[in-house]
Amino acid sequence: MAATKKIEEALAHIREAEKSLKTSLLKWKPDYDVAADEYNAAATCYKTAKQFTQCRECLLKAVENYKLNRSCLDQAALISKELGDLESIFTLCQRAACMYREHGIPDTAALSLEKGAKMIDTQLPEKALIMFEHAVDIVITEDRPRQAAEYQSRVSRLNVKMQKYDAATDAIRREICYHQAGENQPAIGRLTVALVLVQLARGDTVAAEKAFREWGSYCENEEVQTLEMLIQAFDEEDGDMAVKVLNSPFIKHMDVEYAKLARSLPVPKCSQETKKPGVTDTYPPYTSSSGADVDALAKGVGSTSISQNDEELDLC
Fold it and tell me: Disulfide: which of 98, 117, 214, 233 matches 316 by Cβ 3.0-4.6 Å?
């Protein structure tokens, strides 16, 4: 009975909306604001009655009649989640972000993308990845490297989750640069461990050691010891040591995607007895062969935008 009453109330609001859009001899222009408010009220009634399809239709009509009512798009995305229409969440949140950005509200634009991406990242990780990359593009244009690093971390982890390790390598390096620009050095140490794990997943032990050389100076003692032992184990094909390091509490307590990656790494099958001649257990001091380039990128990060495949990412 209550649901029926709400549906009747919604229909009454729709009639008022349609009436406000009509013109006559004494009324030359449609009243779009009133129509939008009535459609919004109808959507609320339908939502209470759990008529989600009709609710979303009314919200979208409100958007069309009242362009500045961007929150209707966010609400429509939430209703799409109830309907299980995940593709619509992607479309609606992208549209809402562009509208927020056009009207000078970049923070809300990025937040809309973040919320939408979190709704679909399990079932549609590729779409979620695009949304997080769009969010990075928005906030870095506003010269907010710390917020950019937060969104970029989702980009990095989604690439790892999808086993796109080449893309993950680039994403983590970019995340490191944002942390440098935001002067968040502890985060760089943790990401160095993540970068080494990704390089090992690619089967490139040379690149893994190079990453350690490049960023190891940012690592804490525990991170340094872990990476030294891990690289040594892979370099010497010491499977026992590799398993021991990858099962250490430090690795297990990393972000879930990196911890899963560590468990899935193909460890060397040879034992310590096959240790290569001439290999030492110590490493020379850390050096950064590309420090100047990195510093330049970190300083200029506020004035650059995300690019993908050498083309500018412009989702609006």
Answer: 98
pTM: 0.71
pLDDT at 265: 92
Are 169 and 181 spatial neighbours (Cβ–Cβ below 8 Å)? no
Q: Residues 292, 298, 300, 305: is their CA dihedral positive or negative?
A: positive
- What is the DSSP secondary-structure string of 101-145? HHTT-HHHHHHHHHHHHHHHTTT-HHHHHHHHHHHHHHHHHTT-H
**Residue 239, C-beta contacts closer than 8 angstroms, at least 6 positions apart:** 233, 267, 268, 269, 270, 271
Domain spans in the chain, listed from the N-terminal domain onward: 165-276+285-296
**Matching residue, tokens 């979190």:** 118
**Look-up of token digits 């549609």:** 124
Closest CA to 289 of 217, 183, 201: 217
Among the listed residues 196, 304, 166, 190, the one whose alpha carbon sits nearest the alpha carbon of residue 250: 190
Residue with tokens 């009243």: 31
> Which of 23, 16, 22 lies closest to 40 in space, CA to CA?
16
What span, in angstroms and rounded, lies between the C-alpha atoms of 255 and 38? 46
Report the percent of the chain where pLDDT is more than 70. 82
CA distance linking residue 70 with residue 75, whole number of Å: 9
Q: What is the pLDDT of residue 270?
A: 54
Contacting residues for 139 by C-beta, under 8 A, at least 6 apart? 106, 107, 110, 147, 148, 151
From the candidate CATH numbers 1.10.230.10, 1.10.220.30, 2.102.10.10, 1.25.40.10, the one assigned to the domain spanning 165-276+285-296: 1.25.40.10
Report the mean per-residue pLDDT for the chain. 84
